[in-house]
Structure formats: structure tokens, C-alpha cells
Design a protein that fits this description.
The structure is a single chain. With 593 residues, the protein is an alpha+beta fold. Helix content is 57%, strand content 13%. The strands form four sheets. A five-stranded mixed β-barrel has the order 4-5-11-7-6. It has a two-stranded antiparallel sheet with strand order 1-2. Helix 6 (106-119) packs antiparallel against helix 10 (338-370). The two termini are 44 Å apart. It binds flavin-adenine dinucleotide. The site of flavin-adenine dinucleotide has 19 residues, from strand 3, strand 5 and helix 13.
């Protein structure tokens, strides 16, 4: 079984040199964020992740959460680890001080969350859902709701859930049927919700469900959905958990992966719920949760990739098999073989690219929330909105690919459960499905995020990429010249697709959607390449100045070169699939399949 060690060196590089931690620390409310504090938090959280969470990962997978008589028992050690998590103040890190949080920026929360997810994805889902629920209540809850729920949820003593899905309503939430009947100051909620992550568990004293339901005379479709807060235990006047509410866990699912994370079927039978915000605006509020959650699920792709890479690398340095192509009588460790190196480099390069893009987006989230200039906040928000489906869709698809390559590096033992490599792939597999499938992310990207605004943000992003391309042109090095050539062709491919989508969205929408997922992949690859190119430029500068960790910077340039040669070169082929591929996608009649 592999250990997990937080990749703090690369995290610091991305935070400081690519995502602009210094600028984020100058934003209003971030004044206390010093370099020392950042390093301290990364170190301490890395220790918690590797010493407390990671050792529970494999055992948690084997044991799984168990349901009996409406209650769920999480695997051995989870409850105690969660207690330590709450006592350590980890849950409160990124929330405002007025609710008991530490008010730290999203940019710092990103590596912290990445570590939990790498160490133990199943465990990390509990705080993920709580975070989404806190964000929704902070923005749309009444003062009373904020007072009752937020301090407990920020601390982590009470956890949160997100109740959207019903048997007939998955991607299409217009089909939600759960009912809400007004009774005095509250509503009675009835219906069944399925697939609710941490919908029931034994780690916290109360569970706060945020539930989508329809009031009696609500209009059909998404315009008739309201959001309710439905606690498992109704809070007493003194804030302690009181009477048990009428929401029961009927069962939990048996799944391919994330076995320790309970996925609950919840039955609401006239449960007491309180309206959040206004009636019929529920889906809009839920999107607030979903955006935060989609970003966090994107981090899951990155985190699993990092864990799979660490495990594959350790194995490749240990496993002896076959002689070196350069000669010698004895068999060598498999890291000597070029194809194993190719696999490890593809894992490393894609993981670093995902990290760089995700943290850059996290820094823009901070600017969008905290910058003192309104225009700058709006500009940053537009960038974040455009990037969220890319971070979610591309990073999770890539996380699966990297976890699968990790198994390949192991050979046969990778397929055997004791090794642990297979768990990463099984756990990763859900990440492209929940919080909106890759297809749904891609629809969002081409529709709401691109066509609806005439491609304005996409064009700004491409302009910023062209500036990096120009910088690469000035730098004199074979590696940077090769990166520039591949990057330039990839940006052109992206630019042509943006223009093509802009033209065709109104007159041939099916053709655009036929290429939506390939376009999301193309944008992910190019955005990752953009950040890797920036990383290579920084590394080249440091080497020229003779500053810092020479080996790290040299490796960064070579990793960016690998990314350019092996990943960025895929962009022109994807462009062709997007622009010409609809014919093949849409040609057959239903009977011909
Ligand atoms: C382990 C797990 C945990 C989960 N946790 C939660 C949770 O905490 N809370 C919650 O509310 N839900 C949760 N879910 C539900 C999850 O969000 C849904 O499964 C997901 O949104 C997909 O919905 P569906 O399963 O009904 O698939 P469907 O919507 O039926 O989709 C089936 C296929 O059709 C495609 N498709 C559907 N519509 C379109 C379209 N318009 N364009 C292109 N393709 C389309 C999809 O991409 C997919 O490939 C969880 C699910 C699982 C398995």
C-alpha cells in the first residue's frame, strides 16, 4: 500500500509563481496571509493528510460504510479522524470570521482540499458537501438561518448535504417532484431523494440537508423549484440538536468506488423544512452550491492523479524487470525503460498542468469576491464562470486517465486490489458523473459560457495565451522554442473552434453540441498547456538568475516540454473532430444503432 506525501514544493511554486499569492494577500480581508502562514498551513495540513487520512483510505475502501435500521456507520477510524479534523479547525479555514471561520483565501483552500482528496477521497466528500451548503446559506439564507446553522457548519460539528437527485430527475432537474406544503412559518417536505452523499452518517451531531422541492402551485419546470433547509434534528432554542425530523435513510448504495462515502436514499415524509430565499428561485441558489462543488470536484481529478502518480513512481523505482536497452547483464528497475518513463511523464505533466490551472482559477475566485474595484470583480467572475466547467470536466476526465495509467505502470499487480492502484481508478470514476456529467459541463461551456456572451471571455483568455506565446518567442532555448511551436498551433485550434461555435450555435446547435465534449477537452489541454508554458518561463528565468532549486526548475521545463510534445499536439486533431465530426455523430437513425 502506498503512502501519501503532499507535493508541497510544486504547490508552493504554483501558489507563488503562477497564481499570484502575493497579489491575493493584498486583497481586502486577506491582509493576515503571510508567506510563513501559507507554508505553515501547507506543512500542518500535509501532515494531517498523510498521517491521519491516508492510512484510512484503503481500509475504508475495504470495509465501506454500513447501513442498518436507518442508521449508517462509517468505517473504523473515520469518526475519530473527523473529530480531529474539526478540532484542528480545518473545516473553518476558508469561511468568514463572523461565522467562526478563519477567512483564508480560496487560493490557500485549494491545496488544502487537494491534500484531503489525495489522502482519502471518500472522507473529503463530507466537508465538500458542507462547504457547498455553507456557501448557499451565506448568500441566500435568512439572518435567523445564518445564526442557527452557519457557526456549527463552519466549525464542522454539523455537516451539510445537497439534495437534488430523484429517480426520474438527474441531469434534468426540471423533473424534480418532491413537494413542499406551507404550514405556518415552515413547510412540510415529502418525497424521495437518491444518491445523497453523506445523507446519513455517524461523524457529526446533526446533518443539514438542503433540498429542492416544489410548492403547491409552483410552475412546471425549473422555474417552479424552491430550496429548503431540512435538518436531521430540529435545532432547539439554545442551538443544540432537538427533535428528530421526519427524514429517514432508507438505504445506501453499493458502488464501484468511494466505498467509505455513504450514498443515501432519503425519504422525506412531511419533514419540517424552512424556505431558503424566495419560492421558485431554488435552482439559482443551488447553482451557488454547485459552482463551488464543481470546482472542488475538479480538484478531485487532480488529487487522485497526484496520488496515483506517487504510487506508480514508487513502484517503478522498486520493481525489477528486464534489462536496460543500453546494455548490462542484469535486470533493472522498470523506471529505466522508456515506455515506463513515458507513462510516468504523462502522469506527472498532466497532474502539474491540472494543479496550475485549478489554483489560477482559485486566485481569480478570490479576486471575484474580494477585489475593491467592481469592474475587476466582474472580469474575474467572468473568467471563473468560463473556467469552472473546464476545471471540472477536463480534470476529472484526466484524473481517470492518469489513474488508469497508474495501473498500467504496475502491470498485473495493478489489477489486484491489495496494491491499491485499482482503488484510485474506481474512486476516480464517479468524478466525471456527479455534480453534472462531463456532457453537462460541456453543454454549459459551449452554451451559457461561450455562445451566450458571443465568446467574449473565451477571446480574452486566448489573448492572454497569445501574450505567453510571444514571451516564449523571446526566450532562447530549444525547449521553450518547441513549447512555443506546439502551444501556438494549439491556441490557433482553440481560437478556430471558438469562432466556429460562435457562428454555428444559432443555426446548427446539434452540430455544436456533438463536439461539446471534445471542445471541453481541447480547452482543458490548451489551458493546461498555457499554465505549463508560464511555468517553463518562470523556471527559465530563475535558472538564468541562478536562483533557487535548480533541479526543480530544470524538471519543470522538461515536464512542460513533454506536455507540449505529447498533449498540446492533440489540439489540432480535436479541432478537426469538433468542426467536422458532427456528421458522424448524428448520421445514424435510432434504428441503425
Ligand atoms: C456516488 C454518487 C454520489 C452522488 N451524490 C449526489 C449528491 O450528494 N446529491 C445529489 O443531488 N446527487 C448526487 N448524485 C447524483 C449525480 O449528481 C447524478 O447521478 C448525475 O447528475 C447524473 O444524473 P443521472 O445519474 O440521472 O444520469 P442522467 O441524467 O440520466 O444521464 C445519463 C447520461 O445522459 C447524458 N445526458 C443527460 N442529459 C444530457 C444532455 N442534456 N446533453 C448531453 N448529455 C446528456 C449524461 O451525460 C449521461 O451520460 C450522486 C451520484 C452518485 C453515483
Amino acid at each position: 500500500m502506498s503512502d501519501y506525501k503532499a507535493p508541497i514544493r510544486d504547490m508552493q511554486f504554483v501558489l507563488n509563481d503562477l497564481a499570484g499569492m502575493i497579489e491575493v494577500a493584498h486583497l481586502p480581508g486577506c491582509e493576515d496571509v503571510t508567506a510563513d502562514l501559507v507554508d505553515q498551513i501547507l506543512e500542518q495540513n500535509g501532515k494531517f493528510a498523510s498521517e491521519v487520512l491516508a492510512p484510512l483510505n484503503h481500509a475504508g475502501d475495504e470495509e465501506g460504510s454500513k447501513w442498518a435500521n436507518g442508521e449508517v456507520k462509517t468505517p473504523r477510524g473515520f469518526k475519530e479522524a473527523y473529530q480531529q479534523f474539526v478540532e484542528g479547525g480545518w473545516n473553518a479555514l476558508q469561511f468568514p470570521a463572523e461565522y467562526g471561520g478563519q477567512g483564508l483565501p480560496k487560493l490557500l483552500a485549494a491545496p488544502v482540499m487537494e491534500m484531503w482528496k489525495s489522502a482519502n477521497l471518500s472522507f473529503s466528500l463530507c466537508p465538500l458537501l458542507t462547504t457547498g451548503a455553507v456557501e448557499a446559506l451565506m448568500l441566500c439564507g435568512t439572518e435567523q438561518q445564518k445564526k442557527v446553522y452557519l457557526p456549527k457548519m463552519v466549525e464542522g460539528r454539523w455537516t451539510g448535504t445537497m439534495n437534488l437527485t430523484e429517480p426520474q430527475a438527474g441531469s434534468d432537474l426540471a423533473l424534480v417532484r418532491a413537494k413542499a406544503v406551507k404550514e405556518g412559518d415552515h413547510y412540510l417536505i415529502s418525497g424521495q431523494k437518491i444518491f445523497i452523499t453523506y445523507g446519513e452518517h455517524d461523524m457529526a451531531e446533526n446533518i443539514v440537508h438542503l433540498v429542492l422541492a416544489r410548492t403547491a402551485d409552483a410552475p412546471e419546470g425549473v422555474r417552479g423549484i424552491s430550496l429548503f433547509v431540512v435538518p436531521k434534528f430540529l435545532p432547539n432554542a439554545d442551538g443544540t440538536p432537538g427533535k428528530r425530523n421526519n427524514v429517514q435513510c432508507a438505504s445506501i448504495e453499493h458502488k464501484l468506488g468511494i466505498h467509505a462515502s455513504p450514498t443515501a436514499v432519503l425519504v422525506y415524509d412531511n419533514a419540517t423544512g424552512y424556505l431558503v430565499g424566495e419560492e421558485n428561485h431554488g435552482l439559482g441558489y443551488m447553482f451557488i452550491m454547485m459552482n463551488a462543488a464543481r470546482f472542488a470536484v475538479g480538484l478531485e481529478g487532480l488529487a487522485i492523479a497526484e496520488r496515483a502518480y506517487q504510487q506508480a513512481l514508487a513502484y517503478a523505482k522498486d520493481r525489477v524487470q528486464s534489462r536496460d536497452l543500453a546494455g548490462g547483464a542484469k535486470s533493472v528497475t522498470i523506471i529505466h525503460h522508456p515506455d515506463v518513463r513515458r507513462m510516468l511523464m504523462s502522469m506527472k505533466a498532466q497532474t502539474e498542468a491540472m494543479r496550475a490551472l485549478a489554483y489560477v482559477v482559485a486566485a481569480m475566485l478570490d479576486r471575484a469576491h474580494r477585489h475593491k474595484e467592481k469592474e475587476e470583480r466582474a472580469r474575474a467572475q467572468a473568467f471563473v464562470d468560463f473556467m469552472i466547467p473546464i476545471v471540472k470536466g477536463w480534470s476529472t476526465e484526466t484524473g481517470i486517465e492518469v489513474a488508469s495509467t497508474g495501473i498500467q505502470v504496475h502491470g498485473g499487480v495493478g489489477f489486484i486490489e491489495e496494491t491499491g492502484a485499482a482503488q484510485h481508478l474506481r474512486d476516480a470514476r464517479i468524478t466525471t458523473i456527479y455534480e453534472g456529467t462531463t456532457g453537462i459541463q460541456a453543454n454549459d461551456l459551449v452554451g451559457r459560457k461561450l455562445a451566450r456572451e458571443g465568446g467574449a471571455t473565451a477571446k480574452e483568455v486566448i489573448k492572454a495565451m497569445r501574450r505567453v506565446e510571444a514571451e516564449l518567442g523571446v526566450a532562447k532555448s530549444d525547449d521553450l522554442a518547441a513549447i512555443r511551436a506546439a502551444f501556438s498551433a494549439a491556441v490557433t485550434a482553440a481560437e478556430e473552434c471558438v469562432a466556429w461555435i460562435g457562428i454555428n450555435y444559432t443555426n446548427d446547435i446539434k452540430a455544436v453540441h456533438a463536439g461539446a465534449v471534445p471542445f471541453l477537452r481541447l480547452m482543458g489541454i490548451v489551458c493546461g498547456g498555457w499554465q505549463m508554458a508560464r511555468a517553463a518561463l518562470v523556471a527559465q528565468g530563475r535558472l538564468a538568475e541562478g536562483k533557487g532549486d535548480k533541479s526543480f526548475y530544470q524538471a519543470k521545463i522538461k515536464t512542460a516540454r513533454f506536455y507540449a510534445d505529447h498533449l498540446l499536439t492533440q489540439a489540432p486533431a480535436l479541432r478537426n473532430a469538433i468542426v467536422h465530426g458532427a456528421v458522424g455523430v448524428l448520421a445514424l437513425s435510432e434504428e441503425q444503432f
